Amino acid sequence: MKTNIPGKWDLEYDVVVVGWGAAGTAAAVTAHDQGAKVLILEKMPQGGGNSSVCGGNIIIPKGKEFIEYLDTLSFKTTEREIIETFVEYALKNADWIRKMGGDVQVFRPLEVAYPTMIAGAGFPKVLGADTVVKYNIKGTPEEGKPSQRLWKFLSGLVAKRGIQVFTKTPAKELIPNAQGEIIGVMAEKEGKKISIKARKGVILTCGGYENDPRMKWDYMPVKPLMFLGTPGNSGDGIRMVQKVGGDLWHMTRLCCLIAFKAPEFEAAFWVSFLSEGFFFVDKYSHRFVNEAGIEVHEYYRELSHFDVEKMEFPRVPLWAIFDEPTRRRGALSRGTAGYNRDHYSWSLDNSLEISKGWILQGKTAAELAGKISVEPKVLEETLFRYNQGCKAGKDEFGRAKEDLRALEPPFYAIQLWPALINTQGGPRRDKEARVLDPDGKPIPRLYAAGELGSIWGYLYQGACNIGEALVFGQIAGKNVAEEKVWG
Amino acid sequence: MDSMLLDERNFEVPASQERVWRLIGKVIFSSLPGLERMEILDENNFRGLLRIRVLGFQVTLKLKGEMLDVEPPDSFSAKLYLEGPGGMFEAGQKVAFTMTPIEAEKTRVVCKAVIEEIGFLPGLLLKGQARRFARSTFEAIEKRLKELA
Fold first, then answer.
1. Cβ atoms of A152 and A51 closer than 8 Å
2. What residues in B contact A276, CB-CB < 8 Å?
3. Contact B37/A107, CB-based, under 8 Å?
4. I need a surface site. Which of A37, A119, A404, A454 has the fewest CB within 10 A?
């Protein structure tokens, strides 16, 4: 193996953790508590990553039947023994949080939004679905959204232990020795390259590739895809692992909502509706789905239809059409999750976004059609059919009657895109969180956890990314701390 | 002041208890007249504005709600705090819903609203209005639940 071992290391630690979110924290804290001297490298000015801007829920299942549920959802893309290990630890996620000085509360959402974060299983008909219970860090709204409380708790664990964190310090390369062991990291701090010796090993927890346009175009099943989370996730860990011969898995997997993209913001805004009065149309003003029946994390499935005659994704972007009561009911982007939450406050009646031109309005369907450049007659016909379905209580796309309300003028439209909460792909790993090569052999002293090569290989159950970050962060931290010091 | 019953309504819905439970949240929010600028603060708390007519005038009230005692699929209650324009008056109500199965596809729903906190003068002025508001909201909930069942 080609090596680039520096003659003299700039810094020495037992363990180097690359990326500071939930997985990085669980890994660093676990390794530290086992006596390791730990350094965390974070490329952004602050830690948190997607963990601090996501829904903030943590899976803590009710029983071992959760293994069957996840095994079904994985569609054989993840070895059962990995799922078993995950569930064994996930059952104790609350104990771990309490041991660390925090506490949890059951997530019981007001299920009044479309789409909504539901309390239970995303796939309720699958065996074991009744074991799904989501929790978040205990607290009140005044103490922040669930992910803000999560990050306050996690970052506090690092601060309390005095674990060294370098922010604005991206890792650039892993440093292998001649035997292929990962013995250090090359990073960039204040414009200078620094070499950091990792006497026991390196843990990669630096997220996915939501903000890497080329990787997204290569791997994702729908194009283009915006992102809702941190702009810091740009595939760094994937490239570093590829350079040292690591295998990849789950690269086409994603967790995807719908969002509005304003040109002046890097990330997109998650959009949902607080009233039944709305529907979606494609580029040609045709409805295509039961808008209220989509599993919130799996939106891309409805949007990834590709028209081989037109050579396009006709549902990307889509338009949401709604009316005055929906416009007045509440903000279309509510700040529950997403990077923009801390950078923009969406107006409660959406009036500011109308004045910005983000939301378009028309006194009639024909006028609105002109503004969104679609055929007026088609939009009028689509609206007529939707309203007829509402009156009859029978929707042509199977939307339940409690989810229907006929629209009345004036009308509004907002352009929506599929938008990633996170990608799931990255280095293939085993149940010990060891990164594997294409032959299935562990790359010595290299571990990974969290969204970077998560174990979610097919359907995604909400709250499992944070649950998984905590679980495999702990496993990676424990195992790396038990490595013998090299050299 | 002691709590005071505003309204109680008791009706049957031709649907299973589970179905009624699944519907009740959405039905309540869609039955609140003139609910605007709604914010979901977390799983148990929300706030918004209610535009209603009081003594013939259009009034905008600040509404804050907190879910209490959520026991799916049997019951839940919520505390609602209402504040008049410029803090002119404040009132605290407790609203409780119970859903009891009668048969496989029939459920009894009981809605009850009680005023818990209100000043003396606003109490005198607005008691009747609050009662009418609770009654019309419960009527709308009953109507909508029966439509959807």
1. no
2. 26, 30
3. no
4. A37
Nearest Cα neighbor of B148 from B43, B25, B34 is B25
> Measured between alpha carbons, how far is residue A325 from residues B30, B35, B48 in Å?
10, 9, 14
Contact yes or no for A275 and B30 at CB 8 A: yes
Q: Is the peptide bond before B101 cis (omega within 30 degrees of 0)?
A: no
Q: Which residues of B touch A (CB under 8 A)?
A: 23, 25-27, 29-30, 35-46, 48, 67, 70, 147-148
CA distance A13 to A337: 35
Distance from C-alpha of A224 to C-alpha of A67, rounded to nearest angstrom: 34
| Residue A367 burial (10 A CB sphere; 0-12, 13-18, 19+) | middle
Residue A6: what residue type?
Answer: P
CA pair distance A21, A19, nearest whole angstrom: 6
Nearest of A298, A316, A307, A292 to residue A226 by alpha carbon? A316
DSSP conformational letter for A51: G
Contact B109, B15 (CB under 8 A): no
Rounded Cα–Cα distance for residues A465 and A470 (Å): 9
B39 and A276: CB-CB below 8 Å? no
Please, are residues A94 and A135 in contact by the beta-carbon 8 Å criterion? yes
Sign of the four-CA dihedral A77, A82, A86, A87? positive
Average pLDDT for runs of 10 along chain A of length 487: 86 98 98 98 97 94 97 98 98 97 87 78 94 93 91 98 98 96 98 98 98 97 95 97 98 95 96 95 97 87 95 97 96 90 94 98 98 97 98 95 95 97 97 98 98 96 96 98 94
* B-interface mutation test, from A402, A404, A405, most B Cβ less than 10 A away: A402
Local structure of A30: helix, strand or coil:
helix
Closest CA to A271 of A357, A207, A358: A358
Q: Where are the beta strands (DSSP E) in A92-208?
A: 104-106, 134-137, 164-166, 171-176, 182-189, 192-204
Q: Check if A391 contacts B (Cβ < 8 Å).
A: no
With DSSP H G I counted as helix, E B as strand and the rest as coil, what are the percentages for chain B, rounded to 5?
30, 55, 15
- Asked whether the beta carbons of residue B43 and residue A108 sit closer than 8 angstroms, the reply is yes
- Give CA angle at A35 (A31, A41), nearest 5°: 45
Of chain A, the percentage scoring pLDDT greater than 70 comes to 99
Nearest to B26 among A141, A393, A402 (CB): A402
Contact (CB, 8 A) for A476 and A97? no
Round to whole Å and give the CA distance between B130 and B113. Answer: 10
Output the CA torsion sign for A466, A470, A475, A481.
positive
State the nearest Cα–Cα gap between B129 and chain A, in angstroms. 23
Count of Cβ atoms closer than 10 Å to residue A92 Cβ? 15
List the structure tokens of B45: 């708390």
- A309-319 confidence digits (pLDDT tens): 999 999 999 99
Q: Which residues of chain B make contact with A348, given a CB cutoff of 8 A?
A: 36-39
Nearest to A111 among B25, B41, B42 (CB): B25
Q: How many whole angstroms separate alpha carbon B144 and alpha carbon B142?
A: 6
- Tens of pLDDT, residues A324-342: 999 999 999 987 789 999 8
